[in-house]
């Protein structure tokens, strides 16, 4: 099995991804680390606890950064994920306690405990990862890989014409993360926004697994409304599950290698700019870290894998 830490801002597609990881026999989730993003960090942490309780998973849940690396408090995505982050379904408050460690501390501790074994899966803004890098500069050597949901290399953004939400939410932290010397695999809107899931997707999950799939189905109502506005048929996207699916079956994806930098300029904030190797002589690029960007996904096989795993 593959050890992962899931860094998340739950969030509806976060919930779907977390349950997918919990259910996958190939994945061992060491803990959930939370960050502000879709919702404020206090809510993200409580939501993550709720998801663990629903799934009967007794693992550490940590609270992380509450604000961007630079600049004022973020605006949240309640209009996508509901006031509670779960589509306003009145889910009960969790009973358990958060782990006393911060998200960044937990990441560093686990990476030292299992050197070279952990894939860090980041599906929210990247402040925890940037902070962990500052706490432990050797972190890139201690982690096996970083798989993240974020960015848009070859397609438009979803917050601005050029920026995807997770990267836009903390562009300075993202630039730190993209510059670090680890094996970084980026699953951005290039693949996650490529094709919607079939209209009955969440129903099938609910039939397969009434508790976890049922939760995803109920919470997705609000989220699907958002994604379906102005569309002829109802449609929905589950961005955050993609970087986990890659761990289970890399053959689902095509990736291309190059350099990625994140714009921190106000107009282009959060843009993930991709350069193929050697395409520029500027030291800004020739010194940039090498990154794999997912460009293609086998959507039918991916969809089937999610459904099968929700058994
Ligand atoms: C990303 O932003 C969040 O709203 C989702 O949970 C996902 O991580 C998609 O742009
Ligand atoms: Ca997310």
TrEMBL record:
GO terms for molecular function: purine nucleosidase activity. It holds the Pfam family IU_nuc_hydro. InterPro entries: Inosine/uridine_hydrolase_dom, IUNH, Ribo_hydro-like. Residues 4-302 form the Inosine/uridine-preferring nucleoside hydrolase domain. CDD domains: nuc_hydro_CaPnhB. The keyword Cytoplasm does not apply. One of its GO terms (biological process) is purine nucleoside catabolic process. Gene3D superfamilies: Ribonucleoside hydrolase-like. Coiled coil: none annotated. GO terms for cellular component: cytosol. It comes from the Bacteria. Keywords: Glycosidase, Hydrolase. PANTHER family: INOSINE-URIDINE PREFERRING NUCLEOSIDE HYDROLASE (PTHR12304), URIDINE NUCLEOSIDASE (PTHR12304:SF4). This is Nucleoside hydrolase.
């Amino acid at each position: 099995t593959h050890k992962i830490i899931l860094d998340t801002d739950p969030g509806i597609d976060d919930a779907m991804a977390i349950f997918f990881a919990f259910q996958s026999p190939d994945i061992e989730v060491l803990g959930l680390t939370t960050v502000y993003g879709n919702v404020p960090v206090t809510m993200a942490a409580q939501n993550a606890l709720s998801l663990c309780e629903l799934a009967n998973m007794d693992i550490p849940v940590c609270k992380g950064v509450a604000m961007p690396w630079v600049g004022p408090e973020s605006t949240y995505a309640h209009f996508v994920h509901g006031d509670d982050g779960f589509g306003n379904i009145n889910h009960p408050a969790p009973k358990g306690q958060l782990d006393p460690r911060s998200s960044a501390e937990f990441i560093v501790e686990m990476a030292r405990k299992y050197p070279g074994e952990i894939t860090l899966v980041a599906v929210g803004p990247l402040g925890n990862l940037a902070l962990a890098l500052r706490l432990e500069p050797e972190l890139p050597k201690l982690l096996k890989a970083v798989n993240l949901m974020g960015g848009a290399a070859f397609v438009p953004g979803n917050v601005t014409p050029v920026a995807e939400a997770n990267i836009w939410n903390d562009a300075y932290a993202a630039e730190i993360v993209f510059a670090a010397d680890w094996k970084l695999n980026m699953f951005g809107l290039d693949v996650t926004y490529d094709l919607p899931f079939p209209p009955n997707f969440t129903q099938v999950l609910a039939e397969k697994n009434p508790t976890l799939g049922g939760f995803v189905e109920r919470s997705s109502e609000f989220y699907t409304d958002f994604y379906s506005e102005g569309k002829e048929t109802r449609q929905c996207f589950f961005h955050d599950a993609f970087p986990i699916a890659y761990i289970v079956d890399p053959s689902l994806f095509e990736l291309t290698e190059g350099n990625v930098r994140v714009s921190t300029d106000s107009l282009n904030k959060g843009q993930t700019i991709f350069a193929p190797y050697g395409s520029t002589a500027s030291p800004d690029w020739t010194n940039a870290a090498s990154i794999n960007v997912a460009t293609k996904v086998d959507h039918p096989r991916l969809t089937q894998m999610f459904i099968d795993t929700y058994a």
